[in-house]
Model the fold of this input.
Amino acid sequence: MKTIIITGSTSGIGLGIAESFALAGDNVVLNGLGKADEIEATRARLAALGAGEVIYHGANMLKPDEIADMVETTRTRFGGVDVIVPNAGIQHVEKIEDFPPEKWDAIIAINLSSAFHLIRAAMPIMKDRKFGRIIAIASAHGLIASPYKSAYVAAKHGILGLIKTVALEGAEFGVTANAICPGYVETPLVAGQIADTAKARNMSEEQVINEVILKAQPTKQFVQVGQIASLAMYLASDQAAQITGAALSIDGGWTAQ
Ligand code: NAD
Done:
């Protein structure tokens, strides 16, 4: 049985990963924004899936001390932390000359710096236990750019640099660090992005789906949350011990072009 912390797991990809680990019987620490009653319903539903415990910690990814408290709470409750998934993320799509500086700051803080704070707090525990799996949810935008996403692309490229660095630092301690780089996944984050991109490019939402989003992916299909969760499960397993410092694309061929 493993203990896993997944940031931003009240929705989308994080929630899908939480479900897979709960089903496998692991202890899961949920995190993310949302209404208290809905989060409790999600927690109870996941707890009923498997043998492990599922708890919720409300750390705001803008607050380093709350992130450290989430790791400490997990260590106290379960005796350690085996897997961390820095996943929480937000998006804002706008031309750079109009890009609000406060949006830049928030995206860098939530999509990049929160991963640093999480890894920084968990690394000593993982090194001590000679086992750890750091699985960051980056993006195809960690490898390539698209217009109007300056902060997001910068943050995701930063995640890849962070992951490579901690992979080297953890290598002799049984701690691996990898980044999953999904293409477009149908989640609430992408729903918001479709609307914003339509505005930025003066297109209809249907045009954005067909001419921007699925045009980027040669398979012409969205990536499914469950497919990302399966890759995360594999990276957490003993079989993946020699995969470290890698950026793993799951993007329907987008970045092969
Ligand atoms: P989502 O909007 O469904 O979920 C985002 C999660 O982050 C939510 O649980 C939300 O509550 C949480 N969150 C946001 N701000 C937070 C804060 N300040 N503190 C704590 N939690 C916070 O989005 P998603 O599509 O599931 O995205 C998850 C990750 O996957 C993000 O890092 C995103 O960049 C990445 N990603 C998504 C796609 C996609 O197409 N959906 C593609 C590539 C990468």
Remarks:
- The chain has a mean pLDDT of 96.
- The CA atoms of residues 91 and 130 lie 35 Å apart.
- The pocket of nicotinamide-adenine-dinucleotide is lined by residues 8-14, 32-34, 60-62, 87-90, 110-111, 137, 139, 182, 184-185, 187-190 (CB under 6 Å).
- The longest strand covers residues 175-182.
